Amino acid sequence: MSTSSIPLSDAATGSQICLDRIEVQGVLRRRLLDLGFVPGNIVEVVQKSPLGDPIAFRVNHTMIALRKEESSLIFGEYVGGDSL
Amino acid sequence: MRTYTIALAGNPNTGKSTLFNTLTGLRQHTGNWAGKTVLMAEGEFTYGKSAFRMIDLPGTYSLYSNSADEEVARDYIIFEQPDVTIVVLDATSLERNLNLALQVLEMTSRVVVCVNLIDEAKKRGVRIDLQMISKRLGVPCVAISARNKIGIDALMEQVEKVASGEISPEPVQIPYSKEIEEKVKELQPIIAQTLGTRFPTRWIALRLLDGDEGLLKSLRERMQEPTVPVKRERIGHEQTICH
Q: Is B169 a domain residue?
């Protein structure tokens, strides 16, 4: 497994992440895949809530908010945006 | 005059209901389907020389068993087998919308893809290559604006052709990994033997491999339906013999 792969919940606001694996299981996994959380797709971290959970992501031109429970199980690598 | 059944499928907010109202002239009534509290509007209209009954399926991002809405929409396409399913796509977010189109194409070949909100897309500078979409998907593809009644004639022309059998679309078949394809091949004859060829065996095989419990439940319910009255009849027959 790639060492630079991080969970979406740890990605900085404004960064873009290329997904490499989704470890969410069951019906929610299906739902996330349908919404575009698929390996190879690029997700932008749009905004974090005041307490850091949930986090809004942009995927396929759509904003989707995920709880940490789920976003901590979706992994990818920085590919751009203002990650620092 | 034959009445063709048309189902409208699409993501939420793609203008399905606007198209529905444009075609049916608001002559709709909503109905509760399959004992679930999911409403589908139904309406009738004539276009050209044909009569149509149109069902507005619940707007969904997918047709797997994620929610009651999705199960109702899926069951309608699989079990009621409409003459044509129109997949309504939002021209301004095709990428997300095409996921559902591909799912429908795995379930039925009698599909017309309808790219709605084309005027809105043009305003935003989005150019859509309909011919290429049609070629890649293997089904007719028409651009419309349901709100401004643009392209409705062209859409209905294709719908009528598919409904009457004048065109038999050959949708693209999505290839899966070798392992999955082998399992599908193994399952298909068993499915055909159990359910007959009324249902798309490849699609059912894929859902079984996906572990889709919701579909299995729906299948079981439908399989039991026709056998129950037959059994009752036999009992009645035996009873008369006894008398």
A: no
Partner A contacted by B177 (CB < 8 A):
no
Residue of chain A nearest B96, judged by CA positions: A60
Tell whether B99 lies on the interface with A, counting CB pairs under 8 A.
yes
Residue B186: domain span:
178-242
Kind and range of the H or E run holding B53: strand B50-56
Q: In whole numbers, what is the pLDDT of chain A averaged over residues?
A: 89
Q: Are B76 and B146 part of one and the same domain?
A: yes
> What are the mean pLDDT values of chain B's consecutive 10-residue runs (243 residues total)?
92 88 74 56 89 92 85 93 96 90 96 95 94 96 94 95 95 94 96 89 93 88 62 40 40
Residue of A34, A42, A60, A63 to mutate for B, most B C-beta atoms under 10 A: A34
Nearest alpha-carbon partner for B59 in B78, B80, B73: B73
Is residue A83 over pLDDT 60?
no
The model's pTM: 0.82
A34 vs chain B: nearest CA distance in angstroms?
Answer: 6
B28 and B123 assigned to the same domain: yes
If you count them, how many residues does chain A have?
84
Count of pairs with CB atoms under 8 A, one residue in A, one in B: 26
Alpha helices in chain B (DSSP H): 16-24, 68-75, 94-107, 118-123, 130-137, 152-164, 178-195, 201-209, 213-242
Residues B151 and B195 in one domain: no
User: Which architecture, in CATH terms, is A6-81?
Assistant: Roll (2.30)
B100 shares a domain with B24: yes
B50 touches chain A (CB under 8 A): no
Helix (H) or strand (E) holding A64: strand A62-66
Count of the separate structural domains present in chain B: 2
Q: Is A62–B64 a contact, with Cβ atoms under 8 angstroms apart? A: no
Neighbours of B127 (CB within 10 A): 7
Residue A38: pLDDT above 50?
yes
> What residue of B is the nearest CA neighbor of A58?
B96
